[in-house]
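quick q for whoever's on today - can somebody do inverse folding on this one?? i tried earlier but teh output was garbage lol. tokens:
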């Protein structure tokens, strides 16, 4: 099957994967964009898993100031080598992540970073909200709400603002596959005028 350059470009724009990788995924999916996206998403996750224990001692601190200068973000994104840190792809990734944080206001990078006290308070609040529900479904309701709360609070689990069809973790996994190095978000801080703790 002949795969058009336009179709490859659309998939590249969506996934940040290389040209040949997108072309192969589209060929394997018989030109079906969603199937090809699924193939590349799976590959990105596999690439990320293979590289996840590599040391990330290089990287960049990037910033984003939203129009009107009422919201600002500083973010540290790490990779394995200074060479990759200086590439346009890596710089673009750090800028996109900072912009996402400004828009989506995550609290932490990953679930493991969430303060147990905040999780306990959220669970109590959801238990109170579900107190009139039958006993046999109350636990499922609370756990479902807690899971949604954590997804919305944790950067890696949020839907990426530029493409809600993928998560921030998917975006980073695609970058890992493209750059050939482990990439992690080490930390970030988001400032907003009028917020006490940024």
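ok took a stab at it. sequence:
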């Amino acid at each position: 099957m002949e795969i058009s350059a336009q179709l490859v470009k659309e998939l590249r724009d969506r996934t940040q994967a290389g040209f040949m990788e997108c072309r192969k995924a589209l060929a394997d999916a018989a030109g079906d964009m969603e199937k090809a996206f699924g193939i590349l998403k799976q590959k990105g996750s596999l690439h990320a898993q293979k590289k996840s224990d590599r040391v990330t001692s290089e990287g960049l601190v990037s910033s984003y100031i939203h129009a009107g200068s009422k919201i600002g973000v500083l973010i540290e994104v790490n990779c394995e080598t200074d060479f990759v840190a200086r590439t346009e792809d890596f710089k673009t990734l750090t800028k996109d992540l900072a912009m996402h944080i400004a828009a989506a206001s995550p609290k932490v990078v990953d679930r493991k970073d969430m303060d147990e006290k905040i999780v306990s308070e959220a669970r109590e609040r959801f238990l109170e909200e579900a107190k009139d529900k039958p006993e046999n479904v109350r636990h499922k309701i609370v756990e479902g709400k807690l899971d949604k709360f954590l997804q919305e609070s944790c950067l890696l689990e949020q839907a990426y603002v530029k493409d809600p069809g993928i998560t921030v973790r998917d975006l980073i996994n695609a970058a890992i596959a493209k750059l050939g190095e482990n990439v992690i978000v080490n930390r970030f801080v988001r400032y907003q005028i009028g917020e006490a703790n940024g």
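fwiw The chain is about 55% helix and 15% strand. also Residues 159 and 165 are 7 Å apart (CA to CA). so keep that in mind when u check it
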